[in-house]
Amino acid sequence: MLRKKLTEIQQKIWKIERNCKHNIEQVGANPKFNCEGFAECQDCNSHFGWWCPNSPDHICHYFTHEVEAFLIKARAVELVDGAEHIIHDYQGDPEYETDDVCVFCHEHEERK
Question: Cα–Cα distances in Å, from 16 out to 27, 34, 79?
Answer without folding.
Answer: 21, 34, 19
